[in-house]
Amino acid sequence: MIVVKAGGNGEIDIEAVCDDVAHLVRQGEQVVLVHGGSHETDVISTQLGHPPRFVTSVSGHVSRYTDRRTLEIFAMVAAGRINKLLVERLQRLGVNAVGISGLDGRLLEAKRKSVLRIVENGKRKVLRGEYSGKIERVNPQLLQALLSAGFLPVVAPLAVSYEGEALNVDGDRAAAAIGKALKAECVVILTNVPGLLRDFPDESSLIRFVPADRATEYLERYAKGRMKRKLLGAVEAVSAGVGRVIIADGRTDQPVHRALRGYGTVIA
Amino acid sequence: MIVVKAGGNGEIDIEAVCDDVAHLVRQGEQVVLVHGGSHETDVISTQLGHPPRFVTSVSGHVSRYTDRRTLEIFAMVAAGRINKLLVERLQRLGVNAVGISGLDGRLLEAKRKSVLRIVENGKRKVLRGEYSGKIERVNPQLLQALLSAGFLPVVAPLAVSYEGEALNVDGDRAAAAIGKALKAECVVILTNVPGLLRDFPDESSLIRFVPADRATEYLERYAKGRMKRKLLGAVEAVSAGVGRVIIADGRTDQPVHRALRGYGTVIA
Question: Which of A137, A179, B109, B132 could join A3 via S-S bond, C-beta 3.0 to 4.6 A?
């Protein structure tokens, strides 16, 4: 069982990812494909006259404000456009893919982060109406039903709150949580850098191996921006029984095969 | 087993439909919900600068031209926005819904109608690049896997062509085809009129019963516009073993319960 996370930032070669996934399926592997959607959501939100709003938390972290309208556009773009175009591509390659989201079958349950504490023009503010969340539970029954019926699940990063609301969740963390729930042999997280870099953004400074028990140390020393979440998810997954997590370059030929051969940062 | 088709034209009370579906599920019924998407696709296509283009066929039938960009917007709106908001609403009502489309798991296989023969300014033209199709085969394995695992499937009207392309298909025909494949006891098609009308648009002229063996005669005499496809689907479904098809008003309170009590046009 291999969980592959691809896309979200628009730079990953999604055709190459699908080719690799189809190849793995033909070799008899069970695969779950998880994707993103933030980049295209920003583009389409802007076209629809509702451009993304970025806010800075009191701890200095910059994030997207997901109000209800943004959440609905995110659901449309991620679970509609990106998910179904991936399913179409896989179907053409002979893979019987089924597209779902973490909302479906309560696959991903998340705690809604309804209030953001932000800093704007030097002042602290409370921003309400946020529709994003942190995954706390995976109900794998839907994935198990699909996998045992011979389908390849393609998962959009939505979740359901305890109150039954749709939420936007981080795709990398979703892949790690799914890998953990399915006790996957391997989780491959494809991104637009070769892996964790010792001197970001110098791509030649790739760290090839992170021992799981020292991951927190690596995270604090080397991870910048979104790499922090990838590494956090990786640590959670490995400590819960996933064989290894590989953070690897999604911009190359055969990105999944290269990752599985160890090109990237392996956390184990 | 009941298949319910709701929505597509923006007038149906979708909250009332979900309440009814949740009630049926609590009574132990198996339900499949099929929805539309054309109306909202027209709205969002226009907002995205790609307004719908309507064409007149050589036989005088007016239809929407689904070029590739329209197909992608349709997938986004129907399988992303409408489908996931329905799933969210059902989840809040305690129903463990799973949203899919006819593309997923090759649920609906359709013959692509890639060329339209149209009349424009009095001249006959051939219009290529159409992405809609006519459902020819239902592969019910995905629905069966979901139903036997206890999920309620919510289906967006996309299909897959024999060449693996995503296609836009008619939601009413999709519901009838699914009802037929699952040998449903009943298919309920909710619309924005009370049923088949003897004197369209006089709503008091409702035809309460159409015997299946005389349906073609009723179709030719009374069905106008989109009602033709509803009746066509109904005839196909009933002749393939579905107990009855009910075309009923979706604008009322308890629309599904009312339909099941026989308010509407019953084809049996």
Answer: A179
pTM greater than 0.80 (yes/no): yes
Structure tokens at A10: 């628009």
CA distance A87 to chain B (A): 7
Domain count, chain B: 1
What domain range is B178 assigned to?
A: 2-267
Contacts of B141 in chain A (CB under 8 A): 149-150
Question: Which chain B residue has its CA at the smallest distance from A49's CA?
Answer: B47
DSSP string, A11-33: -S-HHHHHHHHHHHHHTT--EEE
CATH of the domain at B188: 3.40.1160.10
The phi and psi torsions of B245 (rounded to 5 degrees) equal -115, 135
Q: Which one of B91, B99, B104 has the shortest CB-CB distance to A164?
A: B91
What residues in A contact B43, CB-CB < 8 Å?
none
CA distance A229 to A196: 12
Nearest-angstrom CA–CA distance, A267 and B118:
59
Q: Which of B84, B149, B151 sits opposite A75 (nearest CB)?
A: B84
Number of A:B CB contacts under 8 A?
A: 136
Mutate to test the interface with A, among B15, B18, B91 (most CBs of A within 10 A): B91
Per-residue pLDDT of chain B (268 residues; tens, 9 = 90+): 999 999 766 678 899 999 999 999 999 999 999 999 999 999 999 999 999 999 999 988 888 999 999 999 999 999 999 999 999 999 999 999 999 999 999 999 999 998 999 999 999 999 999 999 999 999 999 999 999 999 999 999 999 999 999 999 999 999 999 999 999 999 999 999 999 999 998 999 999 999 998 988 999 999 988 898 889 889 889 988 899 999 999 999 999 999 999 999 999 9
